[in-house]
Amino acid sequence: MTEIWFAGGIVADGTGIEPFAADVCVEDGVITRIGTAPAGAVTVDLDGMLLTPGLIDAHVHFGLSSPIRAQFGFQLSAAEIAADIFTTASRTLDAGFTTVRDTGGIDGGIVDVIAKGKVRGPRVLSCGPVQCQTGGHGYYGAAWEPTELWETHHIPGLAALSLMSGNADELRRNVRESFRRGATFLKLCVTGGVVGGHDRLDDTQFTTAEIAVAVEEAAARGTYVTVHAHNNAGIRNAVRAGVRCVEHGTDIDEPTAQLMREHDVALVPTFAVIEQVLDPDSSLDVDPSARERIAGTRRRMVEALRISREAGVRIGLGSDLLGSGQHRRGEELRLRAELESPMQALVSATSVNADILGIGDTVGMLRAGMAADLVAWKRNPLEDARIFADPDMAAFVVKAGRIMKGDTQ
To answer: How many other CB atoms are found less than 10 A from the CB of residue 381?
Structure first.
């Protein structure tokens, strides 16, 4: 394959160091050199644009790309649900995200068709169905609907939101089923949540011993467990059980943050979904009670971010966007930049996320030997973080050396 030099740009390599002028050479899907393009080289002229690693969203729900109540109320065909998922995947790539971690909603078939190039989209790591406690967060059937009917909402190969477990043995069986379907990590709901009507944010779900069963099964496959968790009791249960990561972490206090740091448990805050739920003009189709549940959540999550940062917890970045309104995925970087800095948001969305996901040796930084996942921005998002939130500002998106978006003529 011919060498291609992305030349004339300013490189922000994902580590947080000061951006520098350099050209980046790509061959066979890998960054081979960073320096100065030689005379006569095949080049893509960046004309001073900022070049960053491909962004990583550590908390997506591609399988929830349709109106949620309609999807789980059997009001949509499998074809329409699939079309919505494929649209979200394509838009995610166009927004500059070359890798995502799907934390519940898709079945293995979606991962496969994107990996084969049959559908445009980022690299996808998936937990398959979320592991949920019977009657807990992650169940979206009607209150009168028997739990055993829940899996009739799944569409094999396409969408499978969650599996319900009433005890440790059922959880072990469901975890193994998720791995059979192609999961590469596991996610458990260990507290109540916002979007759902069967639990409360201060509920704890699954015991420490039950969570440890999932950790044991994940370790047997060389992978890890992350948990949906809002309150401290649920987070502590999960940390003591041996999980790698906490999603949301809304109410993290100083003792909990210190416990997470001691056990090297990472945090992935999710601010964009809060804005999405609170926005009265949002297309998000959720029960109105969700807006009541989320009252005060943003303020508490901001404080949890500050406490976790001061404690030295690794902090990634995830959007958690739901429904059809997932086209501005970079809003999460804009929101985080307002709380910290644009550079810190970029680092969380690149090298830190890659480390949390266990793929930091291949993506997340612009370094020789890394996969050639690149984004060139029309304007500098480190000077104005709103650029991250505008998909049109991503002039070039390169995934594994292939230009997926951008005109090289």
So the answer is: 28
CA distances from 65 to 70, 84, 92 (A): 11, 5, 12
Give DSSP secondary structure letters for 86-149.
HHHHHHHHHTTEEEEEE-SEE-HHHHHHHHTTSS---EEEE--SEEEETTSTT--S-TTS-GGG
Residue partners of 144: CB distance under 8 A and separation at least 6: none
Q: Quick check: 120 and 146 in contact, CB under 8 A?
A: no
Average pLDDT over residues 188-212: 89
Integer CA distances (angstroms), 15 to 25, 182, 310, in order = 19, 31, 19
Tokens of 325: 């309104």
pLDDT of residue 285: 67
Longest dimension (CA), the chain: 71
Q: What is the DSSP letter of 292?
A: H
Place of tokens 């807006």: 291
Residue 396 has pLDDT above 80, yes or no: yes
Alpha carbon distance 80, 83 (integer Å) = 5
Burial class (CB in 10 A: 0-12, 13-18, 19+), 35: exposed
How buried is 314 (Cβ within 10 angstroms: 0-12 exposed, 13-18 middle, 19+ buried)?
Answer: buried
Q: Which domains does the chain have, with CATH numbers?
A: 4-53+365-405 (2.30.40.10), 55-357 (3.20.20.140)
What type of residue sits at position 85? I
- Element containing residue 210 per DSSP (H, E): helix 208-220
* Alpha helices for 279-402 (secondary structure H): 289-293, 297-311, 331-339, 342-347, 353-357
Q: Which residues sit opposite 355 in a β-bridge?
A: none
Token pair for 54: 């491909």
Q: How distant is the alpha carbon of residue 241 from its chain centre?
A: 23
Q: Would you place residue 1 in the very low, low, confident or very high pLDDT band (cuts 50, 70, 90)?
A: low
Q: Is the pLDDT of residue 380 over 90?
A: yes
Return all residues near 67 (Cβ < 8 A) that are at least 6 apart. Answer: 76, 283, 285, 323, 324
